[in-house]
Design a protein that fits this description.
single chain; Rossmann fold; globular; 56% helix; Tyrosyl-Transfer RNA Synthetase; two-stranded parallel ribbon; 390 residues
């Protein structure tokens, strides 16, 4: 099966990236024709104002791939922007994409909602109010998500109920109405990125695309565009299938989603000391105040990590001892730090031996291979659409 997948170059990878993406790629590359690309154009959809670290981020990302085991001898590894045919196909697909398909794209709505939620949450916390994130999320969701226009009247009423005064509420509503919140994604590039994503996939006639459930709408748009193009101009594109990936749920060290922006991630390239320090700061069972208090491993973030990275026999012992208050959180974290460092050490060692120049040379060859395939597809596309040919 021909598989195409990409990642945005936003910096070094963390454990969440490994479990959610890289681990699956490693399985695919052994028995499929795989093309893995650095989606640097996609990185510009909401990070277009600051590109000074973009090239180095590309190199750091690919170093992590290779250190984890992605093999350029088995898979084609390349950079999206080095294959200009992606942009040409995106332009042509954009000509036949109904605007409603993009407006109804749930990923677009989700990101806009999250930006509004994060703004309201941070504003409330900045005022010293101790309101749970779930309550704030429900308030913003009620006012925003299923409505064509934001329900400002309902938002005001709900914010008053949780103790925010009228002046602060006016400030929140003013900033949202003024367009300050979410303006970074109020662009043609972000609105149309599902079309570019479709071009990334269709140009290589991919048969399968590994995705999580949240990305399924993008694959459906890609399939719809393939059908629409073939109906208008003749059979050129395959309809790729989504390959749903099994991803263990892993949170950041503070119990929130693991994210660079939250500063709560454990990175694949971090030193042994850095990893140990982060593990020792992790939150555990909030009701276990003393070592003599019985623990509840099923709600402990540290135990979630143990389930993934620690030997099964040791995990069983930790589970039993925690429930009987025979092991403290500090000792439990020390065991986890050892487990994580044992897992990461081979990745660190391999990464240290990969130079920037090696990455550039491999990408140069990967770009050439990808371009050969893309050029061939675009010749078919131009002929099918009766575009000018020299």
């Amino acid at each position: 099966m021909k598989i195409v997948s990409g990642m945005r170059p936003t910096g070094k990878l963390h454990l969440g990236h490994y479990l959610g993406v890289i681990k699956n790629w490693l399985d695919y590359q052994n028995s499929n024709e795989c093309m893995f690309f650095v989606a640097d154009w996609h990185a510009l959809t909401n990070k277009y104002t600051d590109t000074k670290e973009l090239q180095q981020n590309i190199i750091e990302l690919v170093k992590d791939w290779f250190a984890c085991g992605i093999d350029p001898n088995k898979s084609t590894v390349f950079v999206q922007s080095a294959v200009k045919e992606h942009s040409e196909l995106a332009l042509l697909l954009g000509m036949i994409t109904p605007k409603s398909w993009l407006e109804l794209n749930p990923s677009y709505k989700d990101l806009k909602f999250n930006l509004f939620f994060q703004y309201v949450r941070d504003f409330i916390y900045g005022k010293g109010l101790k309101i749970s994130e779930d309550v704030i999320r429900d308030i913003v969701h009620k006012a925003f998500y299923h409505k064509k226009d934001i329900d400002f009247e309902g938002l005001e009423e709900d914010l008053l109920k949780i103790g925010l005064d009228s002046e602060n509420i006016k400030e929140i509503i003013f900033n949202i109405k003024d367009g300050e919140i979410g303006k970074e994604i109020d662009t043609f590039g972000f609105f149309g990125y599902p079309v570019l994503m479709a071009a990334d996939i269709l140009i290589y006639k991919a048969e399968g695309v590994p995705v999580g459930e949240d990305q399924l709408p993008h694959i459906e748009i890609t399939r719809e565009l393939a059908r629409r193009f073939n109906r208008f101009y003749g059979e050129v594109f395959l309809e790729p299938k989504a390959i749903l990936t099994q991803t263990p749920k892993i949170l950041g060290i503070d119990g929130r989603k693991m994210s660079k922006s939250y500063n709560n991630a454990i990175y694949l390239s971090e030193s042994k000391e850095e990893v140990s320090k982060k593990v020792m700061s992790m939150k555990t069972d909030p009701q276990r105040i003393k070592k003599t208090d019985p623990g509840r491993p099923e709600i402990c973030n540290v135990f979630t990590y143990h389930n993934i990275f620690t030997d099964r026999g040791v995990v069983s012992q930790i589970d039993s001892k925690c429930r009987q208050a025979q092991i403290g959180c500090v000792e439990c974290k020390k065991i986890l730090a050892e487990s994580l460092n044992s897992f990461l050490e081979p990745i660190r060692e391999k990464r240290e031996n990969i130079s920037d120049s090696q990455v550039k040379d491999i990408l140069l060859e990967g770009n050439r291979k990808a371009r050969e395939k893309a050029v061939k597809t675009m010749e078919e596309v131009r002929k099918a659409m009766n575009l000018w040919q020299e």
